[in-house]
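Late entry, written up from scratch paper. The run itself happened at the end of the previous shift, but nothing got recorded in the book at the time, so transcribing now.
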Amino acid sequence: MMIDIDPKAKGLIFDLDGTISDTMPIHYIAWRNAAARYGIDFTVELFDQLAGIPLYPTVEKLNELFNKNIDPREMGDAKEEEYENSMHLAKPVEPVVEVIKKYHGKLPMSVGTGGLKRLAKKSLELIALDEYFDIVVAYEDVANYKPHPETFLRCAEFMGVDPAECLVFEDGILGIQAAKTAGMMVVDVTKYYEVTTGK
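Output as recorded:
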């Protein structure tokens, strides 16, 4: 199924995990295993609810939800290490890759992710798309993460495109909310591929 691009779009912004690369099942297993060590049942529903929140703030959120006092760095780093060991298994999200290849060199493009920059770049390299993006706005580049619009607004700024003329590709509820708050157009990519998290 081809994704249609709004003709008003002058710049394209892509979330990464679950949007360009189908990494969410791998992230989910890593979170589930990391959380289990602290007696937390990390369900698919919980994962969906927290999708888009960066690494350490996710642990802070778990502390709130489960009345725990887990060190965010300790649990976050353990989760990320497990994820990094398996991230090579992720497949590209083909309908989104088609858009990237079709509009490369025609419209400015950027990646706006809540992930760490090092892993975002590695993720793009693993699916041979790193050459397509000069602009990657990651966790370290913003003070406020999704659903705050800062990630996407920074992307627009770097691309030199008015936010109202940006089209965002997202799979997460918080990311879709961030795009709408930024006054951007948005495509929910989960309508174009089978999401297999937890299956």
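The CA atoms of residues 146 and 178 lie 6 Å apart.
(Scratch paper discarded after transcription.)
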